[in-house]
Amino acid sequence: MKLTSIRDAAAVLAGLLGVVVGTAAAAGGRRGDAALMRVTDAVTAVPHLLATVVVVALFRGSLAAIVLALALTHWPGVA
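Above: the chain sequence. Below: its structure as tokens.
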């Protein structure tokens, strides 16, 4: 699979993160599900633009930082 844009790479990474968290919540039982739901709620509560600016600033604006920032702020919708 060839990723042709930042959008595609971020979407694939966010999808993978969401699937991993969702699968772990399903396999973790009641307590694992509750803990991972709180993590998902916390990520959702942080404004996307603020989180993206912080991650990009920490990694000096590299392309990988942009993809990572977008993926880290958009995976809860998948989980």
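The chain has a mean pLDDT of 88.
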